Amino acid sequence: MAASSATGRLGTPEDLGSACAWLSIANASFVSGQNLPVEGGPTCACSERAAVARGWSRGHPLRMPSLRTPRELEALLALPPSETTPLLLALTRAQAARRRPSDLPQQMERDGFFRPAVLDQRMLHRLDGLALDAASEFEAIQLSPVAPLGACSALAPTSQDRTLTAMRATEVVSDPTNVLALECARRLAGAPAADLRLCTVHQVLRAQRLPGRPGPARRVTSGS
After folding, report:
1. Which residues are CB-contacts of 53 (< 8 A; sequence separation ≥ 6)?
2. In sequence order, what E strands does 149-191 have?
């Protein structure tokens, strides 16, 4: 755990006590409604390899890598998600901080990812019930909205560009069949002789154009 800290050591009760003591004095009287992480900066710690790719080192402010040469880009692409996530989070925080409330409805208007479904939600609920009733001999499970990064592209010959990729090595579910296969593999690892019958009804989001519909997003309810 100490290796994951930017300070190179574990925290002590005195570290937490000092922060609490500072919050209690008059000099901190204008601090209100803030989170004060006292954790040694694990999200800021990085290896030397990550520092080269990101273009920064300990003791220097985080900045975007220059990516001026193919070598710099290759070094960044070679990093595991655990080392690129802090950079991507910093990027999205900065982008979100520049947004105004008026930007949000404008994006919702032009971006197909955010449009409501064309069917009434009550109708969708009844259709989901009919689909699950037809699979009464199967265990119905509610999947998470996100799946491990590569749940589609690593298991099937499809492009990651068709999936809405998220942070922290995750992606929005675009094919529940693959996620059910991963869940079966997880369960069979603990009980190889188990007879598994799983089913689900899951709303998926794909970065594919739907014929006759504006926008690049395709959102469907899929049963598996």
Report:
1. 65, 72, 75, 76, 78, 79, 83
2. 170-172
pLDDT at 60 over 50: no
* Integer angstrom CA distances of residue 144 from 32, 170, 174, 182, 185: 35, 11, 12, 12, 16
The C-alpha atoms of residue 136 and residue 139 are separated, in whole angstroms, by 8
- CA Rg, the chain, in Å? 23
First-to-last alpha carbon distance for the chain, in angstroms, is 41
* pTM as predicted: 0.62
| Residues whose CB is less than 8 angstroms from the CB of residue 42 and which lie 6 or more positions away in sequence, other chains included | 4, 5, 6
Query: What are the chain's domains?
Result: 2-97 (no CATH), 112-223 (3.30.930.10)
Closest CA to 44 of 93, 92, 83, 13: 83
d(CA 97, CA 34) in angstroms, rounded, equals 16
Whole-angstrom CA distances from 180 to 155, 166, 175 are 12, 19, 9
**Residues 172-218: pLDDT tens digits?**
998 999 999 999 999 999 999 999 999 999 888 888 766 666 554 45
Kindly report, residue by residue over 108-151, the tens digit of the pLDDT: 888 878 888 888 999 989 999 999 999 999 999 999 999 999 99
